[in-house]
Amino acid sequence: xxxxxxxxxxxxxxxxxxxxxxxxxxxxxxxxxxxxxxxxxxxxxxxxxxxxxxxxxxxxxxxxxxxxxxxxxxxxxxxxxxxxxxxxxxxxxxxxxxxxxxxxxxxxxxxxxxxxxxxxxxxxxxxxxxxxxxxxxxxxxxxxxxxxxxxxxxxxxxxxxxxxxxxxxx
Length: 170
Ligand code: APR
Hints:
Elements: E1 2-6, E2 16-21, H1 30-39, H2 41-52, E3 64-68, E4 76-81, H3 92-109, E5 113-116, H4 128-139, E6 146-151, H5 154-169
Parallel strand pairs: 1-6, 2-4, 2-5, 5-6
Antiparallel strand pairs: 3-4
Helix pairs in contact: 3-4, 4-5
Adenosine-5-diphosphoribose binds next to β2 and α1.
């Protein structure tokens, strides 16, 4: 089931929440800042370990990796790195990869529910309509029990809702 809600990703009572991270895995603003602030230092400690082991050069764009969710209501945070919007270069496949790879990591952990923010639509400037279309298409055939998109403001919520409705009609 796919759900579109307005809200804060850090408050979601799901198995896994997705973080719109950057490749350093060491935090930032927006969703990333909120997750580390509310989740506490355990998340950053695990991110540092990942940087010291598997991801010495950082997490590549489009890939996903899990850590504890610390003090968040979720069990895991799945960190993924969205593409920065580019007018001249087609990067939609990387945004789709973020969603598919996050779902694959979640499924491997045994998660049955997952919440996504609108990856790349903040600091990374991806246009909302396009991001909604790519995100919804990427998760459409997933067997995850619950996939929830959590939109922070009214406009993003409306855009995702409309895109979801048009996808269902098509
Ligand atoms: N819950 C849900 N959505 C949120 C929250 C929140 N607490 N805070 C912000 N958002 C929304 C923003 O309004 C935006 O639509 O999440 C969307 C993604 O925005 P960003 O967090 O800026 O993510 P992104 O565009 O992928 O940029 C990633 O930002 O902070 C850095 O470390 C991060 O460098 C990375 C970059």
